[in-house]
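WARN  no MSA supplied for this record, continuing single-sequence
INFO  ligand: pyridoxal-5'-phosphate
INFO  echoing inputs
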Amino acid sequence: MEKTELIDAYQSLGIDSKVIAFCEDIERNLEERFKAIDKVAEFNQMKVLKAMQDNRLSDVHFAATTGYGYNDMGRDTLEKVYADVFHTEDALVRPQLISGTHALTVALSGNLRPGDEILSPVGKPYDTLEGVIGITPAKGSLAEYGITYSQVDLLPDGSFDWDGIKAAINEKTKLITIQRSKGYASRPTLSVKRIGELIRFVKQLKPEVICMVDNCYGEFVDSMEPTQVGADLCVGSLIKNPGGGLAPIGGYIVGKSEYVENAAYRLTAPGLGKEVGATLGLNAPLFQGLFLAPQVVSGALKGAIFAANIYEKLGYSVIPNGNEERYDIIQAVTLNSAEAVIAFCKGIQAAAPVDSYVSPEPWAMPGYNCDIIMAAGAFVQGSSIELSADAPIKPPYTVFFQGGLTWHHAKFGILKSVQKLLETGILKL
Ligand SMILES: *Cc1c(COP(=O)(O)O)cnc(C)c1O
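INFO  complex generated
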């Protein structure tokens, strides 16, 4: 193929040649980092493959179950595969876990009882968890059931406040919740290694405390997961990393048998637990998505790093910066104005395979405390392993960009965002 053919292809999708030229330079400089990402993906691919082979995954596991879902061999095998991939005793991986927030809610409410306290030693958790825990009052929150919450923020330099954490752990502390990814905050994402250090510290002070990690956006970014450095529970969404873009719904909870079981009794009913829950034919995409996930995550990571380098060069502040190690697939770009955030999101939307012709607008989403704009032209509604961007419309006007089922699509999305900023006159090249 001639190089001009590719340029023509981009131009036919509305990208100016100067945007292509600007971005091409940056891509060339990222070759070495992309190779390192490919190595992690290769390792994780083998990890997933081995778990599937060891559990003798077979065609019969793709059969649909209905009703109560007794003896759903596919579901039980999927859970064994997840347990192996995460090196845990047990797993709960279900389409009935309707989102990451729900999976976290089930893990928390299954393992906490009135009088218990949750501690977050890494600052405020993800927005939707505020209502779940009752940090902001909400019907049905854990606070309404007599479960209290305490929080220790990271220090200004992003390090753990060891003294503060020590002081916050008391006789009521039952569970600590560690959010791996920064989510919509501007603090750094935690590496698996740092999570391990934090867990070791907490366990020295109180060995029986349950250490739970909100693993959303972190799966397969590293060659290790938090459950390999002491996490008792790890929780996430299947319409993010581990679903590989194919899971149409679902969440997972992996960890120690006792805690996974407690969660299962809450998801279904006391006495029923993991024994029920029909999968309605969803096992195949959940397996296949997991199989593809290491590769999909590597594409999303490349996209995030590419975006960081582009926007840094354009003079914007980016977290993580262009050179930093990555621990999740989220890229934050501070665009300094609502107009720029909206233009960026319109670019991402225009790059989508689905709904590319619609224009995203800010709106008041349930669970969030200000207007949010979301760009997503996804095969699965709300899937953020697919190319997507979201931003709370409030200063400093930071957009959070993530996903891309393939690196080339992630790249195109970023080109399109630059193009939109150029067209609205916010940017000059
Ligand atoms: C996405 C996410 C969640 C859960 O979000 P859902 O949209 O409910 O799946 C929780 N924590 C973090 C850090 C997340 O990124």
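Residues 99-101, 126, 128, 179, 181, 183, 214, 216-217, 237 surround pyridoxal-5'-phosphate (CB under 6 Å).
INFO  checksum written, moving to next record
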